[in-house]
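Handout, tutorial session.
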Amino acid sequence: MAADHETVTLRLPASLPIGDLPRVTLAALLRIHRVNPTDVGDLAASVQERAHEMNAAGSDVILDYQVSSAEVAIDLSGNGRTLRISAPRR
């Protein structure tokens, strides 16, 4: 991975149910970067919950996933706000 600047973006339109896509995308990135899911605690549940809240408000949701040697971070944008959820890597 090139430094801490690589980002994977997932865009979810308000017109479609988002289901488990935020959680599944995070799981795939953790596998690619060989991060043990238990090392980032409840990050997946938090991302899933916040994405559903934004989508339920009728907003498109944009998730920017970033995995570095120090942390796993997801920026969620939608419903007129941006929220960062992160967890340090152990």
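The second record follows below. Compare its token runs with those of the first.
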Amino acid sequence: MIGRNIKSANVSLVIPTRNRPEDLKKLLNSILFQTILPKEIIIVDDSNDNKTKDLVDHIKNEFFAKSVNVRYLRGGKEGVAQKRNIGASQSTGDICFFIDDDMILDRDYIREILEVYEKYPNALGVAGYIINLYFTGFSVKNKLSNIIRRILLVFHFTRDACKVRPIGISYPFPLTKIISCEWLNAGSVSYRKKVFKEFKWDENLKTYSISEDKDLSYRIYKHYPNSLFMTPYAKIFHAESPAARFPKKYVIYMGVFHSVYVFYKNFEQTLWNNIYFYYGLFFGHLIHQILSRNPYNVIYQIGAYIQLFKNFKEIRKGNFAFLNKIID
């Protein structure tokens, strides 16, 4: 048990950001009043103006007064995965937290994460619990929606479990205890610094870097089973900022292409795995878009399939250079 008199720890917080100074300010304020403060905060920014830098320059003295070093780095124009790698490489703490810029931390967030590392010395990664992910309770409507999601092999909720399959992942809801996981969400995760001597965020996954969390954490899980954990006591709120987001068409295309790349990279190419994956990709995800009742999403999903067939070899290798040419 970490003593309540301990006010700081040898940990680094890495925050990738782009054009979200207002959201970043709320996150930094929630860090400032943590019951255990980090050694340093590393902000990796590729905004197209100086508003984020100005914010950091304005607020860093408040952290300095509490012996927290705030470092501002420009870079990571290729995407979130690249930003996280830059931050990890520059970090000096024993544990490296990665927090998305539109998150807000509960006061005990860092303390509760460190409690898990202390309780489980074998832990290589620990994630906090996003308290507002999609829905907040299991009404009859939500239960039915979740059953359909599981059948369609898309993102769904499972009690006290976060599982990885060839396509589709589960997030624990409800989460009633500290659990061992197969994957950890990138926006609310921490890893021991030594992890990055062996593993990196995959920079082939650019911009939003969709599926980069599944890719990294599942690779760690396969090499070191029972080394990843999630705690319900480290609560984090995802504000889901509307700022600096890509068009829905781009996101849907990335979702399809990145899913294919991550599947071939991380899973055995057995007949069963291929049947499972392509059922989910072509049937499950398309039906899910149809059920969304947004005709544009359905059109974009079909368009993504067409481009997948045209660019399959490049996608499988993780080469997505063609994407910007087909999105207009």
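Points raised in discussion: The first strand starts at residue 11 and ends at 17.
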